[in-house]
Structure formats: structure tokens, C-alpha cells
Amino acid sequence: MDEIKASTSLRMRRLATAVGIIACGVTLRLGGYEIGLPYFLVKYGGSTLWGAMVFFLAATLLPRQPIGRLAVLAFVVAALIEFSRLYHTPWLDEFRLTLAGALLLGRIFSWYNILAYGLGIALAAWLERRHLERSPFGAA
What we know:
The chain is 76% helix and 0% strand. The protein is mostly helical. It holds the Pfam family DUF2809.
């Protein structure tokens, strides 16, 4: 019973972290320029947060997987989504023009985005590993 409770707690914490990252990313993208943040910080800060979000969503769905495996999975998912920007159909391009489409899929392929995703995933994995090392439940 304690193992189930610990696993549920781990999932909820990871999901809450992902939701918090989403809120930070949306706030950065929608309000970053208005408060005078530079383009580089808004653009690639958002991409870094997006990579971290992908990591925490993967970690929420697969709580028993090792952190390294989750990081690799998150990077593959993020890179595949970035590469999907090279694929064009009318309905997909229409979706990309919406705010939801721009935030979820983006509009233009960029190798720099892949680097930013990797940085966000690496930071998220590092923070998660540190948290688990200090947690009384360990990896749960």
C-alpha cells in the first residue's frame, strides 16, 4: 500500500511540476516581450521550458523508468515533434497558425530549438535525480 501511495505521490508531483512549467512557458511566450525581455530569452527560454515539460510528462506517465531512460525518451519525443515541422499538410499548417498549435508544435524547424529542448531535458533530469536522492521514498 505504501508503494502505491508513494508512486501516486510521485506522479502527482511530476504532473504538478509539468503544469507549473507550462504556466511559466506560456507566461514567458505571451508576456516576455511586453516586460522587455530579450528575444533570445523569450524564444529559447520557452523552448528550454518546453523540453523540461516533455521530460516531466514522460516521467509522470512512466514513473518506474530510470531518469536516464526518461531523458532519452523525452529528447526523442521533442526531436520528433521538432522534425514534424518539416511536414506540411493544409490542416496541420492551419493548426500551427493557432496559439495552441504554435505552443504545442511550433511553426518553423530549428536546430537551435533541439539544443534548447536538450538543455531543458538535461536540467529537468538533473533536478529530478537530485530530488529523488533526497526523497525518503527514493525512486518510488
